[in-house]
Task: structure prediction
Amino acid sequence: MSGLPPTTSVKRWFVTTNHKDIGILYTITALFFLLFGGVMALLIRLQLWDPTSQILSGLAYNEAVTAHGLIMVFWFLSPFAFGFANYFVPLQIGADDLAFPRLNALSYWLYLGSGLLLAVSFFQGGTLSAGWTIYAPLNVPMYTPSIGSTGAVLALAMFVTGTTASTVNFLTSIHHSRAEGMGIMDMPMFTWSMLATVWMMLFAFAALLAVGLILAADRVLGSVYFSATEGGSLLWGHLFWFFGHPEVYIVFFPALGVMLELFQTFSGRRLVGRKWVIISICLISVQSFLVWMHHMFLTTINLEIKTLMMATTIGISLPFDLVVFALIYTLIKGRIQFTTPFLFAFGALLLFILGGITGVFLGAIVLDYEFRGTYWVVAHFHYVMFGGATALFGGAYYWFPKITGKMYDEFLGKLHFVIFFIGFNAVYFSMFLGWETPRRVFEYNPEFQIYHQFGTIGAFVLGFSFFIMFYNFAKSYVSGEPAGDNPWDYSRTAEWAVSSPPPLENWPNRPSYASGKLEFVKDYVPDGGPAMKTDDNGDVATDGGDSHSAHISEYPYWDKHPSHASIWPFALSVALGVTLFGFSGFADAVTVELGETAMQSNVVISNAMYPIAIVAGMLGLLYTGVKWGLEDFYAPPSEFAERWPFNGVEKVKLGMWFFLASDVIVFGAFLSAAIFVRYNAGWMTWSPLTESLPGLINTFVLITSSFTVILALVAARRKSRQGLLATLGATILLGFTFMAIKLWEWNHEIFDRGVTISANAHGDPIQASIYYVTTGLHGIHVLLGLVIAIFLFVRAYQGHYLDDERPIEYFGLYWHFVDIVWVFIFPLFYLF
Amino acid sequence: MIDPVILQQGSDWRAQAEVFDEIFFVFLALGTLVGTIVVAYTLWNVYKYRDDGNRSDEEFDAPVVGELPTGQGGPKAKKLFLSFGLSAIVVISLVVYAYGLLLYVEQGPDTGDEGDIEIMVEGYQYGWAYEYPNGHTEREALIVPADQRIDLNITSRDVWHNFGSSDLRIKSDAIPGDYSEVWFAVSSEDVEAQGGEATYRVECFELCGAGHSQMKSQITVLPEDEWEEWYESTGNSSESAGNSSNIGAAGVAAPSGVSA
Result:
């Protein structure tokens, strides 16, 4: 898989790893989901037309509400923004591509696959009907029993997996591949917004992944987290909103970034108070993790905490004030051109101002008590999230000429804006007027019918306006005027300095800002050595000892041509999709009848389709994973780049660190869940379920295996193949020892003591669930580590890693991390 | 038997709805004012500085492609901070003002040590059960006397519900395994104004399943003496007559006794 077929070939779109191709795929797929979610919205609006008659059953209405929320928030807003981010962040920072092109393709395919899984869930006895907030315990099978509900939860988990990959990729790219001379404060505002977005995503989506995995365990394996009365409901609330509040900014920030770009481009002014805007954006990103309980003011949280959350909530509104004023003042004394992109960006600002002001209402606890669960909230967050996304449509018009090389139709664009803006306010402002209506209720007080009918008309107008956009884009793509490299008078960012569309590897020569503005410099590339900077005369520059050059020479294949095609991201995603599809029906299709011992237990399979899907999918995962590992795919790091604050860190290592940081949050959430539930059950009423001796032995086993991994790295550096094989082999043996002891322990618990994942002969069932799920998650990490270790072992046997020991080092990082997690698990589950 | 302490009229206590309406009005007035000013100012400037093609190029320093951003501060930064400061003052003072009233809403009016009526409210799919101190359970309506502080202790038997009455401006989550509290009081004037028996809509404000839309109930407020009469007629039996009923949705199991 090396050559990339032309864009006219269907095959290209399955194998491409190029950031621009993937950006296009993201954008188009997201627009598809906009239609999908939009149809759900129109179903809701139709049902709201008349509170006395039903066109949807109660369950169907709930499914429409749930799917609308999930699709719009997860499968439309973020991916739409990430389409632009994929295309333009590398261009704006002067990179050839994202740091990990194959991973980028994987993110996209996981996104598409998860969306298809969600679509399939409608046909598995109905999709999830618990609202996009999926509150517990409505989210457990007792109350939402359909297979499709589980399918939707697993689809969400798959989506989050892809998102995490994307997050790691963007963080590494932005921190590792900025063109020479582009300091972090010099980045264009869209890139800045994306950087803040992905930093928030790294932690927020990890929390969502954790809570999604716990819910999946409840639904597939039978654990009882969210049905537990020992705080199960509140546990969901805390974990979900810890993700959920940053999520608001995660979907809003890319739109804000587009606004910040477009306000400058179409007024000819530079952003006012740029530094302060950046500081505000950073502050908001941090603060977003400190306000989540304002979504839970009516629960039993005590007054002190509510007060604290109220203060942090007001605190987070202040940086937003500054950003809004900066946007407004940027326009003053400009030469404002009312193009379609500007109209959308400006409209977004007006909508966001209204969303922001109504948000302050919600910050006052007394008002929030009343607004909770009403259309005030619905109207507010649509003004903020969809209002913000309005700017993204501006971005679509703004970048359309760059992506296609053709100009869109200005008249149709403006028409779209006018109809969109009228429809938007008709549907969402009417919600403010009828705000006392409870959310997700269709038999509402007939007093408010006039508002809801008005809103329904608005919704259809709003929906219609998008067809003008689709028509405009289709028509312009086929027969639009050629746009040229830079159709805008006052654009500044680097994407406008290359042709439309840009060439595969983006740049004519290496982009550099070293002189204070963008230049394309030609580097001197000696035979058998990496590129070197040249001075004005084209001679090799001798000043400024070049650490970058040393950096690149660590890569043994530095002079290979970069790869742009791989089928494995697609294949891996298919395999994961099949596996998760299998798991969605697992609980219904497979029953385990426990006997006296494991041997006497019986597995009854009532529907073979699901277990077969699991097995086939997992084999597929293993196969594609190995093929991925063996593929000769080369994505070189930028040779000369700004890397603050990670100057000395190699690209893959940096990616590994980001991944582990998100995994810390995943485990953090699992352990917090364990502590939260135990605290609610009465801390001292629980004692360890298991004997501590096997756990203690396992602690020693794991710590020893950490040492052997270090020895493996040492052996690889010394180019000792035997040493490498011996130490890796020892690591694998220790890993299996750990798993064997674990297996014995579980076997003992289940068959000798009657403690299973959903039943506990000696106390609260939830305690058993927590024990199995938490140690099980760790066990899966160990197992995954073992698979990688075996892969490394075989490759080492074939003589690899002696020239380039970095894979051993990065595997070691992961392995150490898994060992450290055990050090936290051990006391919590075995000692106290 | 409950020994009621009559809430004093007038300045001593305010209904939740009154507190809410006051804060809501203040926020709405200021919000509209600030919003109008900001939006009008923005629109005016956008119009004023539109590109009409006949502005001189002097003093216009147009950006060019590939420039590194400058203007991190600039003369407008001062104005930026002034507006930011002003908005911060408005927002913070609004919230501090609202916080003062929050403390009242949290505590409720002081009625002395005894006498408040405490009723357990249990949500279930799809209805509400009200259990009185004498063990009587009511399912059609929450029947309470006027002029008295009523304390509700709210929980759920199955999934997460939210007990709320928009008319009375009270609302609280009903979470399985957890007990949340809310109080309210209705004056006898209000009861008389509604013709001797005041009724208020009760709805569920948290998605709780297929019947969420139909999960309605009501609060009925009777004059003190009428309520006394009714309450005594319920006796100590939870299955008693009066105007209590077993009309709850078909198929809904009788509520198990609620215990704290």
In short: Chain A has a mean pLDDT of 93.
